[in-house]
Amino acid sequence: MTLTAEPRHRAMPEPKPPVPESKWRPRQELAALATLLTATAVLYLWGLSASGWANDFYAAAVQAGTQSWKALLFGSLDSGNAITVDKPPAAMWVMGLSGRLFGFSSFSMLLPQALMGVGSVALLYSAVRRWSGAGAGLLAGSVLALTPVAALMFRFNNPDALLVLLLVAAAYCTVRATESGSTRWLALAGAAVGFGFLTKMMQAFLVVPAFGLMFLVAAPLTFWSRIRSLLVALAATVISGGWFVALVSLWPSASRPYIGGSTDNSLLELALGYNGLGRVLGGSGNGGGGGGGGNTMFGGSTGITRLFGMSFGTEISWLLPAALIGLIGGLWFTRRTPRTGRIRAALLLWGGWLIVTGIVFSFMKGTVHPYYTVALAPAIAALVAISVRELWRGKQFLSVRITLAAMSAGTGIWNFILLDRTADWFPALRWVILVGSIIVSAVLVVGGHQLRRYTSVLAIAGLLFGLAGTTAYAVETAAHAHTGSIPTSGPATGGMGGMGGGPGRSEGNDAALESLLENTDSRWAAATVGSMTAGPLELSTGTSIMAIGGFTGSDDSPTLVQFEQYVADGQVKYFIAGNGMGGGPGGGSGTSSEISTWVTQHFAAQTVGGSTVYDLSSPTSS
């Protein structure tokens, strides 16, 4: 591969061939890798239980999975198997199995998430190292580990941790497939993406155009051989993700939980509707996305600047300007390389990942939250590492030095702006980064051949100033607890918190209500509208609580007829008036409101602690 910033007689040297994974690596490289992974593990594991149950919604499903194998299989919110969470169950499988192995606790639930972070860093290092060397691999892994939203999500129980691990694994497999034209490696990449579908549905497919483009452009095969390999990978994706969709479709609906978030009790409809086109176009139960600039929990205003805005900016964009500049510069300097040129292929892979996913996130009109941006972290990390390494090798060219200087200055200026959003938090840091980055940029531009004398000092200074902002924010993120359904990174004073409330919240629980529920032996100790009350009560009592209408109380499950039958059969003991997100006496809307009204008409209310409770085994005379 040749980088041609100047005429061909001044081209950059060819990179050394990748070191096969099976070869012994230099001792210094192994020590550096061990240091990186150990530091990542410390960052993600230290004080891991500080966030408690983190997101009660998913924690309740994990607990249910430790109590019922059927609940584990389907990702049920409750061990009585009334309804599932509104995502596929792959992440619940991992956390639930950890709970079964080590006993259910905050630590056993979050441990796999942290280890997924370490695994993602290791895989990204390996993927970048193969074509750009150990230095670039270590830098890529470090940037990923120190991205604030990564430090948040690898210590939290949302599905995003597993999704990132699977997508980085798929990227590694695609790199292996492209360098040798291996159909087997490409099929493994497809299988990883398919399993990503079982983690967070359609979001897993956003990387597919980049993977396909790199293999189609750069694999050392004939055109039709490349097409055949891509079709095999597509088949692997369909099988890996489709088997569970088929299982849910074939399983009798009366003997499994309702698929939460769907309109027809179908996992496929959930994928295409609420978790698919609904997220992008709005509708299908999606709200909040595309709101005004102040609607930061739901992404703020749509548009090309959304990734830099108040909602997403401090989560992911610390090195985004550098990544974009490096991508553009790298593609320009490799424009004359052969079709199979590896550096250009890598830029297509990671650049395609960043551009496609970034554009979708920027213009989504449905529900979108700041932590979704963790899916961009591996691509940004890889682009920064690859472009810095390749440009640094050609720094004797003025055009290359200007590109490096732009990356440094752009990072310093943008980090200053981001840190100014939390101006009272380490106020001097933003000035140190700004001044240091500009000095590094100036030296790069005017240094000329004198740079050779200060290469190490300049490289270290550039990395320190470039990574200072994201490192400080990531460490601060890991240093305090995060709870709720919409966690955010950064200083506690800068976060937006989550959503919650209701008598089931840990701060609102009381001994009387918990004792009442714990002394039941029915299939469901109680029913309530939505998960805001049901989830925390399940966690505090260890009992099964039916969340009528699912997460928001808006799903049409159970129907009034079904609920009446459950009551008649003695399968649900109490009804707790909660705070579902819709209307009606008990919250919720539609079917949930009908059930709430039926309960209030046929059963007497009593106050237990601070909650209104109806004993469904004792109907009133009316």
From TrEMBL:
Molecular function in Gene Ontology: pentosyltransferase activity
Domain Putative mannosyltransferase YkcA/B-like C-terminal: 519-602
Classification via Pfam families: PMT_2, YkcB_C
Sequence segments annotated as region (Disordered): 1-24, 484-510
Keyword Transmembrane: yes
GO CC, alphabetical: plasma membrane
Membrane topology: Multi-pass membrane protein
Domain of life: Bacteria
Keyword Phosphoprotein part of the UniProt annotation: no
Transmembrane segments: 30-48, 101-124, 136-154, 204-223, 230-251, 316-333, 345-364, 370-388, 400-419, 425-447, 454-475
Protein name per the record: Phospholipid carrier-dependent glycosyltransferase
Species, as recorded: Antrihabitans cavernicola
